[in-house]
Amino acid sequence: MSAMTVFNHLQPMPSGPIAGQRCTWRVAFHATLVAVLVGLPAVLVGAHTTIHRVGGEGGTATVVMDCGPDAFMVGLSAHGARDNPIAPNLVRKLRFACRTFSGATPGSSTSQTREAAAGVQGSLNASQSSVQCPQDRVIHSLEIYAGLFIDRIAKVECRGPSSQQTWLNVNVGGDGGSRQFLECPNGEGLAKVEARIGSSIDSLKGNCRPFGEAAQQPLTVQIDSTLIPRPTGAKPEKILPAKAAVFSFRIAGTVNRNTSIGIFGETDLLGGAATNPPEFKLEVINPAGSVVASRTVRKPPAGTVQSVSVTINAAGTWKLRVTNLKKSYGALDVKSVSGGA
Predict the structure, then answer these.
(1) So what CATH class is 5-215?
(2) Which string of DSSP letters, residue by residue, matches 215-227?
């Protein structure tokens, strides 16, 4: 997965303009310990953690509202209502607006995610709202009231590349539930929200990634933390003769930098190992899908990393394609991929 933090807060808490009243769990710090303390399973993804959702445990389907690898959520549209006079007033529909960013530079247009819609809609005591962050800012947190369902979306907090804040009032839904927050760690913005739905919208879970100044990490960190797949000596990526494998990584903000990207690979035992040194081609593919650097390697010294030089000049998903040039004998075991030197 790209370097994203899956977040939620474990307790209701005040936020925004009311200062000095927060007590939050920051999942970016000691997430495994938090999971142990609250008795919840934790799944580590790179340096990040998945914990439980905000809202109830119900729902029969999951709607994924995803801005994609190069974009952040910058606005939302929501609708709330009762479906009968004695039913609770709940959030019934939710959709997000997305904007692509190259580093901290915003794209000129926005797009829309899928819509999460409750199975039962309503028209009594209806409320609806659409809000959007300033062009250079992304959604950092949502103030939500929730219990068994998502009762109300109260506010959106937008943050800029240097953590400048803008608060937007939404006020869609009813008065039930307790006050809770979906809040990214400092320096990150919201990129994806998963909604569990049934007759109502039961719960929400969000995913964040670094934005702005926090995205300006060294290339070594960006490549290593987002690399997919991630081969090891114990579990190499095997490339058969005349076949290729593709490794992807995300660049969030560091652009116009020269680097090298390479592999440590050996011919597998059945192919002769050291007696039959590997032969392969390295190709770097930019986010637009073009090959921008390549190098052919034939019978390199044993135990060496072989790399290709490239200029990283755009944010987005980059790829390293490795082609085994052996025609019929000798699979290539890729044991590591490295970059950023």
Answers:
(1) mainly beta
(2) G---HHHHHHHH-
